[in-house]
Amino acid sequence: MAVLGILSFTLEVPDLDEGVRFYTDAGLVATVDGDIARLRCPGQNRDSITLVGGFPVKRLHHVALRADNLDLIAENVVEFGGDVVDPPRGYSDNGLWVADPHGMLLHLSEQPADPELVAGPVFSVNGPGRIVRKRRPAVLPGSSYSPATPRRLGHVLVFTPDVPASVKFVTEALGMGLADRAQDIIAFCCARADSDHHVLAFAKSPGVGFHHGSFQVQDPDEVGRGGRALVEKMGKGDWGFGRHTIGSNFFHYIQDPWGSWFEYYSDMDYIDDYAEWSPTNYRMADSLANWGPPVPTDFVHNYEISTES
């Protein structure tokens, strides 16, 4: 009985064309049908993002997770303060629809695991006493590189009014594991086997909302190149290039048209067996970055609620 991984997220948005333009500029492939746009990583056979247009403001609709033993999860959901709900109108009735204790909607379904990604070139780093790259340059002229290509959706971070309560719900009711946290402000949760450091994360805010979706690319260079290219196209805010303490991944965040964020990442910590992992409670100084540029003033602002305290 457990969540096995992340599948997708769905957003209600005021301008579908603007959303499609942003995510295709980021490297995703779009299929548009009326007021609905579905976006996937090149080469993948399933969607990572669904945008539903025609709404006055952007809002998180739901997060979709891959899971097994849905009957037992349904029993635990009620015990730990959530609700099993009917599928929203127009959405699939397969799997299990759940509202967490704060009303955030989750769709759990039994899906086959994604095929293993094809490995790319090794990112080789020469260092003192460790020369592993010889007789060739590490970096080619900029024009040699294709645009950034997201390989898969790695995780989603959402806002919640009570981080410990949200963690308790997904760990006790959905069978996830707490990977790490920083006090009661931010927490990172993983699947209990063969998981990125986090697949679902929570940040404190007065209400529920979507903060960012994070997409894996080949290596740190592609994080940097892709992030800079998308910033130049968008002309909005960004944060990066940098490296997180929690999760260890290199990152570059680019602000979407509605004030939330898109992240390119590489080199995430991996938890093959949660029983062998020890969660850490980090200081707030380590909650966002180990190194990088200054954090934007609105990086943790939840634009889906009217006020922030």
What does this molecule look like?
The protein has helices at 16-25, 70-79, 163-172, 220-234, and strands at residues 2-12, 29-33, 36-40, 49-52, 59-68, 83-84, 96-99, 105-109, 152-160, 177-182, 186-190, 193-196, 200-204, 209-216, 238-243, 250-255, 261-266, 270-273, 280-281. By secondary structure, it is α+β, with helices and mostly antiparallel strands. 41% of the residues are buried. A 9-stranded mixed sheet has the order 15-16-17-14-9-13-11-10-19, covered by helices on one side. Strand 16 (250-255) and strand 17 form a beta hairpin. The model has no long low-confidence stretch (mean pLDDT 96). The longest helix has 15 residues, at 220-234.
SSE arrangement, N to C? EHEEEEHEEEEHEEEEEHEEEEE
Roughly how many Å is the radius of gyration?
19 Å
Quote the beta fraction. 25-35%
Strand order of the largest sheet: 15-16-17-14-9-13-11-10-19
Structural class: alpha+beta
List segments where confidence is low: pLDDT < 50 over at least 5 consecutive residues. none
Bulk shape: globular
The chain-level mean pLDDT equals 96
Report how far the terminal alpha carbons are from each other: 37 Å
The main β sheet shows up as: 9 strands, mixed
Number of helices: 4
Assembly level:
single chain
What portion of residues is helical?
Answer: 10-25%
Total number of strands: 19
